[in-house]
Amino acid sequence: MLPPSSARRPEFIPISTLVRASACPVRVYLERHDPIQEPYEYTVAKQVGYHLGGNLDVDTIWREITLVRPDISVTMQGYLRGCISACAGLPWRPPRTIDLTITNRRYAVSGRIDWFFDTEPKIGILRATRAPDHGVWRQDRLRAAGYLLAAEELDGETVSEVQIAYLPSGIVRRVIPNASDRRTLLSALKSVEAIYRGETPRSPPNAPCDRCGKKDLCNKEPPTLFERFFKR
Q1: Which are the contacts of 59, defined by CB distance < 8 A and separation ≥ 6?
Q2: Mean pLDDT of residues grouped by 10 in the chain (232 residues)?
Q3: Which of 42, 184, 222, 232 could form a disulfide with 128 if both were Cys (CB 3.0 to 4.6 A apart)?
């Protein structure tokens, strides 16, 4: 069995934590003390995002990437070239601002959006994954719902849509979260709050265990008497 949680609740729960909890709250529990390290793909895609609508020069962007992440492998240059090839020549909207942190004090959640535009969809999210054949990925629907929740307290702004840019595909999709998305988000929020109260979560039946980096630490069921006897 997993030990009780001893993590202190942050002032604001990140939207990214809610998205992870929607897939499996046990993963959030096991990673609660881990340092945050963004994937190399996101580092590359994020830097490309700063240049969209301008000169997508491979050498310039790569120099910036190595400044941000000195430990990045040179093999990621192939991913960089793929993103640039997919995004070059497309009509990218200029944002009003970039890297905007938004918070909702009522629900104590926060997130940083990549772009904020003057017209709908006002919120822009950059993704380092390829786009699905249709629409957006399920977790991106929840991510959009979370950012819209956080944006409710923006002064003088009415926000109802989210733009999701899948840079490796050069594809931009619009999404308006539905009631099911918002219910799932609120359920994830309750799961995370329970972890910070010291409760131990259980993994759902459809948890993505095969691709979870913590699967070796996760015990889905209590050990049997036979297992406990032979582990002595």
Answers
A1: none
A2: 58 92 87 84 98 96 97 97 97 96 95 96 97 96 96 91 98 97 95 89 78 71 47 50
A3: 42
DSSP state for residue 128 in the 8-state scheme: S
DSSP structural state of residue 3: P
- Cβ-based neighbours of 232, under 8 Å, separated by 6 or more: none
Domain ranges of the chain: 13-217
Distance CA 50, CA 108 (A): 29
Q: Are 139 and 22 in contact (CB under 8 A)?
A: yes
pTM for this prediction: 0.85
CATH architecture of 13-217: Alpha-Beta Complex (3.90)
Residue type, 165: A
Nearest Cα neighbor of 44 from 22, 85, 19, 72 is 72
CA distance 193 to 9: 8
